[in-house]
Amino acid sequence: MGVTKEQVESTLTSKLKPSYLEVIDTSGGCGASFVVEIVSEQFEGKRLLERHRIVNAALEEEMKEIHALSIHKAITPEQWKQQEEAEKSNANAVA
To answer: Which Pfam family is one of this chain's hits (predicted)?
Structure first.
């Protein structure tokens, strides 16, 4: 039995206290492949590679069974806010 989406969510929530988290099981249910988007204050002052290492370290036990982990976003709450504002202004510009 592989890792579940809920296990990944639970571990990341308890260890990184994200303000936003999305975990998608891309393995078809066998728990071997996941895509993650995470927003956490713990990423403040960290480069992208360091942020990915933090996520991988948080999932150390789960990574023993996960074959692929794609971290689409690992950003700070401030970066998240800026992205949301940019998307809103782009939507307004198109309308």
So the answer is: BolA
User: What pTM was computed for the model?
Assistant: 0.87
Please identify which residue in the block is written with the tokens 């806010």: 81
Give dist(CA 84, CA 50) in Å, integer. Answer: 23
Long-range contacts of 6-14 (CB under 8 A, 24+ apart): 7/31, 7/62, 8/34, 8/36, 8/59, 8/62, 8/66, 11/58, 11/59, 11/61, 11/62, 12/36, 12/38, 12/55, 12/58, 12/59
Q: For residue 86, what pLDDT is reported?
A: 87
